[in-house]
Amino acid sequence: MHHTRLVGGLISLAALLTLLLVPGILLAAPAPGPDALSGSPAPSPAGSPADAPSPTASATAEPAAKPAPKKRKLSKKQRRARRVARKRKLVLTVARRQLGVRYVWGGASRRGFDCSGLTLYVFRRLGRSLPHGATAQARRGKRVSLRRLAIGDLVFYGRSGSYHHVAIYVGRGRIIHAPRAGSVVSYSRVGAAATARRLIGA
Known about the structure:
Elements: H1 2-28, H2 34-38, H3 55-61, H4 76-97, E1 108-109, E2 112-113, H5 115-124, H6 134-137, E3 142-143, E4 154-159, E5 162-171, E6 174-177, E7 186-189, E8 195-198
Antiparallel strand pairs: 1-2, 3-8, 4-5, 4-8, 5-6, 6-7
């Protein structure tokens, strides 16, 4: 009788412990996720080596640097043509700066010019020395056709051996000159010129 009660009490105690422990074990075990059921690997966390681009991919993405183009060497003829063009441009620039300066007989400065004084002054800025006087200047340079005038050519008026006027050709059929007493340095048409001389590029 005593033993029966003891055995019955132990069975009851064991049953009670089972009821208390089994739910805790079931709650503590994590449920398998969908990835575990499907067998596919879990994604790598952000910033992991799997997300970083490979060195090979980065190297191929960058374009190769192009070599700097070589400067083409100019020929002697081309260099000369550039020098001539620069001098003609300088003549045009200096002559335009004298527009509006008054005519003064024998003048060769910005205080006043006569016709050959103006040409003398302009060409001096190119380092070219000219005598003062239209006839004397007509002996310089190379004779050029009036139909083939270029900027910087000297255009003469009068007759051979006795020119009374000289002007600077500035393109488009025009000249810059110091016309006469009472006037100022100005533009004009070439008109009835007698001859022309080329000092630049001759």
